[in-house]
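Lecture notes, part 5. Sequence design as translation. It can be helpful to think of inverse folding as translation between two languages: the language of shapes and the language of residues. The source text, in C-alpha cells, appears below.
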C-alpha cells in the first residue's frame, strides 16, 4: 500500500489492500510499554467523576494497564460482548476503507505509540488514543451499533458528497461527546478521554458551551482540530443517539447543504444549554 499522504508516519508498506497489518506485538520496545503505562496511569486517575460509567467499567475489565495490549486478545473479549473485533493499521487510512471496516464491526487501531516528548499532545491518532479512547466504548451494545451504523452511513455519505457534514457528527459524538446522567454530565468521546487536559476542561471549565444534541445543529457546526473544543453536545443516552440518527440522511444533507456553517463557538437560536451539574 502506498502511504495515504506521505507526511503520515506509519509503516504503510507493510499493510494489505484493506490497510490491515499484523500487530507483531514483539516489535514494541520496552520504552513503548513504559510510556504506555505512564499515559494509562495519568489518564485513568483523571476519569472518576468525569468518564461515563459504561466506559469506566469496560476499561477496568480490559485490564490494559501493564503494556500495550495484544489486539487479538482484546478482540476475543469484544467479539463475545458486541461482535466487534480490532485490527491493526499503520495510522490514518482513507475514508472509504475506514467506513468499510466500521460497517463490518471492525475497529482499526493505529499500530504505533507516540514518542515521550509527545506525552501531552500529538497531531495524529496513535495506539493510545485509539485503544484507550475508543475501545472501551465498543463494549456497550447501543454504542457498538451506532459505530457500525456510522460506517454504513459513511459509505453512503461518500456517494452523496456529504462527508463534511457526516464527519462533524463523528467529531461531536464519537470523539467529543458528553452524556447526561443523574450525577451530571459525563464523557464518552474518545478525543476527550485520551487527552490529559480536555477531560477537566470538557466538564468543569466555564469557557465551552454544552448544548443538547441536535442532529442538524451538529452537522452544521465546524470544529477545531488543534485545541480544546468551544462547544460540546450532550446526548440523553446511547439508545437515543442510535434512534436520532436512524433516519435517511439523504434529504437532510440536501437541505443542510444550502445553509451556512455554524462557527465552533457560535450560539444560535434553539440551542439548549446544559449544566454540567445535575
Ligand atoms: N442514518 C444515516 C443515513 O441514512 C446513517 C448513519 C447512522 C450515519 C448513524 C451516522 C450515524 O445516512
Ligand atoms: Fe479517534
Amino acid at each position: 500500500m502506498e502511504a495515504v499522504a506521505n507526511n503520515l508516519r506509519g509503516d504503510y508498506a507493510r499493510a494489505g489492500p484493506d490497510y490491515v497489518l499484523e500487530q507483531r506485538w514483539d516489535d514494541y520496545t520496552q520504552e513503548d510499554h513504559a510510556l504506555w503505562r505512564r499515559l494509562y496511569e495519568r489518564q485513568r486517575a483523571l476519569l472518576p467523576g468525569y468518564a461515563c460509567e459504561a466506559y469506566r467499567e469496560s476499561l477496568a475489565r480490559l485490564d490494559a494497564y501493564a503494556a500495550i495490549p495484544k489486539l487479538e486478545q482484546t478482540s476475543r473479549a469484544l467479539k463475545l460482548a458486541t461482535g466487534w473485533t480490532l485490527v491493526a493499521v499503520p495510522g490514518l487510512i482513507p475514508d472509504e476503507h475506514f467506513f468499510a471496516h466500521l460497517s463490518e464491526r471492525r475497529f482499526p487501531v493505529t499500530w504505533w505509540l507516540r514518542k515521550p516528548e509527545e506525552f501531552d499532545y500529538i497531531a495524529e491518532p496513535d495506539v493510545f488514543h485509539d485503544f484507550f479512547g475508543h475501545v472501551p466504548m465498543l463494549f456497550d451494545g447501543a454504542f457498538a451499533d451506532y459505530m457500525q451504523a456510522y460506517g454504513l452511513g459513511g459509505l453512503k455519505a461518500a456517494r452523496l458528497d456529504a462527508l463534511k457534514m457526516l464527519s462533524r457528527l463523528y467529531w461531536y459524538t464519537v470523539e467529543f461527546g458528553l452524556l447526561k446522567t443523574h450525577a451530571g454530565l459525563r464523557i464518552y468521546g474518545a478525543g476527550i478521554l485520551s487527552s490529559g487536559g480536555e477531560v477537566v476542561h470538557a466538564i468543569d471549565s466555564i469557557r465551552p458551551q454544552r448544548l443538547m444534541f441536535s442532529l442538524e445543529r451538529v452537522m452544521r457546526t465546524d470544529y477545531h482540530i488543534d485545541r480544546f473544543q468551544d462547544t460540546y453536545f450532550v446526548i440523553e443516552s446511547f439508545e437515543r443517539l442510535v434512534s436520532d440518527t436512524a433516519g435517511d440522511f439523504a434529504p437532510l444533507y440536501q437541505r443542510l447543504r444550502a445553509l451556512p456553517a455554524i462557527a465552533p463557538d457560535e450560539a444560535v437560536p434553539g440551542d439548549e444549554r446544559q449544566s454540567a451539574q445535575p
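The translated text above is only one of many valid answers, since several sequences can fold into similar shapes. Residues 2-256 form a domain with the Phenylalanine Hydroxylase fold (CATH 1.10.800.10).
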